[in-house]
Amino acid sequence: MAPVTGTALARTTGWIDVVGCDAAGPAGLGPLQRALLEQARLLAAPRRLLDAVRAAFPQAECLASDSPAALMPRLQQALAAAEPAVVLASGDPLWFGIGRLLVQALGAEALRFHPAPSSLQLAFARLAQPWQDASWISLHGRDPAPLAAALQRRPTALAVLTDPGRGGVEEVRRVLGASGLAGCYALWLCERLGHPQERVVRLDAAEPLPADLDPLHLVVLLAEPPPSPPPDSLPLFGLPDGLFLQHPDRPGLMTKREVRIQVLADLDLPASGVLWDVGAGVGSIGLEALRLRPALQLWAVEARGGSAGLIRANAGRLGVEPQGVLEGRVPAVLAELPDPDRVLLGGGGRERAAILQALLPRLRPGGMVVIPLATLEALAELRPVLEQAGLAVTVAQLQSWRGAPLADGTRLAPMNPVLVLTGRLPATVRSAPECPG
Hints:
With 437 residues, this protein is α/β, with parallel strands linked by helices. It has three domains: 4-116, 3-Layer(aba) Sandwich (Cobalt-precorrin-4 Transmethylase, domain 1), CATH 3.40.1010; 121-223, 2-Layer Sandwich (Methyltransferase, Cobalt-precorrin-4 Transmethylase, Domain 2), CATH 3.30.950.10; 231-424, Vaccinia Virus protein VP39 (Rossmann fold, 3-Layer(aba) Sandwich), CATH 3.40.50. It has twelve helices and 21 strands. It has helices at 31-39, 47-56, 68-80, 99-106, 119-126, 145-152, 169-178, 257-266, 284-292, 307-318, 352-359, 376-388, and strands at 4-5, 8-9, 16-21, 42-45, 61-64, 85-90, 111-114, 135-138, 157-161, 185-191, 199-203, 217-223, 273-278, 296-302, 324-327, 342-345, 368-373, 392-398, 401-406, 409-414, 418-424. Helix 8 (257-266) packs across helix 9 (284-292), helix 9 runs parallel beside helix 10 and helix 11 (352-359) packs parallel to helix 12. The longest helix is centred in the first third of the chain and has 13 residues, at 68-80. The radius of gyration is 29 Å and the shape is elongated. Mean pLDDT is 88; it is low at 1-12.
C-alpha cells in the first residue's frame, strides 16, 4: 500500500481510498477524510448519499455504489490511470460493507481503508454500555433461526443488524416473543446513527413502532432481570424459561421448558417424601416440582458458588420454599441429606457416574432416579450403573421445536434433543451398585 506522511498523501501508484461515514454522510467526515474526497476525481457512494456528495464535491465524477459489480470496471480504470478515487461507505467498510467485495475484485494491495465507527459502536456509545462482551447477529437476507438460537444462550447484550425487507425491528420482536424471553430484555431501537436526526428509543413489547421508522435501523437487546409476577398468577407447571433468574456469566444454562415438563412427568412425584435435585443449576425443575407437590421436601444441591442465593431467589419468585439449598461437591455433601424418594441428577460432567454410584445406596425402596442427558456417550456410561444396581431402566428421547418467524409465515426451529434416562428401584428391595473392577 502507498505510504502516508502526515496529512499529505503521496500517490506513486494507483490505489483507491475506501472511506467510512456515519448516517450524516459527507457532512460528518473529519478533515483528513474530507481532504481525500476533495482530491478525488472519481467518487462512488450509496445512492442515498449521492446528491449530497455531488453538491459537496462538484470536481469529481460521482457514481452510485449500490451495484458493486457494475462499478468495478470504472474503479479498475481509475487504478490503471492512478486516478484519485474514493469509495464512500457506511461505518466500517470491512464489517458487513462493500469492503469485502472490493478486496475480492481489486485486491487488498489496491485499497486503503479509513473506517468510521461501526453502527454497533455508535449504538453502544449512545446507550453508554460497554460492549466488549456483547454478541451480534445479522439478519440481512438471512433466516431468523440463528437469532432464536442466540437468544437461548441468554447473552447479556445482543446487537441485531436488521433487514428492513424482512420486517426489521418487528421481526426481532416476534422472535423474542416466540422465545419466551420478551420480559428478559430491554429492546432499544437505534435509527440513523450519526445523523443529526438520529433516534434511540426503548420499545416495550406491545408498543407500536414509530410511524416514521427509518429503514436504517438496528436493534440492541440488553438483558435485565425478568419481572416477578405474583406466584398465584403463574401456570401450575410448564413455567416460561424467562421467569427464572440466571447466572450472569452463564446465561441460558438451564433446563428448557419442554424438557422440564417431560422430566417432571417422569419423576412421578409422590404427594410427600424427599426429592434431591443434584446439579440443580438455577433450580428450575426442583422448584417447579414443589409447585406440583408442596408437601415434598426439596433438597437442591449445586457445586457452583453463588448458586444457593440464586436458587432461593427463584424459589421466592415461584412462591415455594425448599427444605434446603446446599453448595458443595457431590457426593460428599449428600451425607447431610435424608434418604431420597426421588433423585434428579443433572450436571456432574465426568464425575457423573461416580456420583450416581454414591447416591444409589441411599435411594429408598420404590424410589426413582431421572437423568436428562445430552449425549449418547453419557447414556452408555450411566445406563449400566442403574441396571447393575437392580433398577428398572427406561430410556426416551425428547425432541421439540419452537415456532420462529419466517417471512410472512412460521417455521419450526429445532431445539437440542435430550435423552431421559430413568431408573426405578423395586418397592421391596434395596440394592447397592456393584463395585467396579
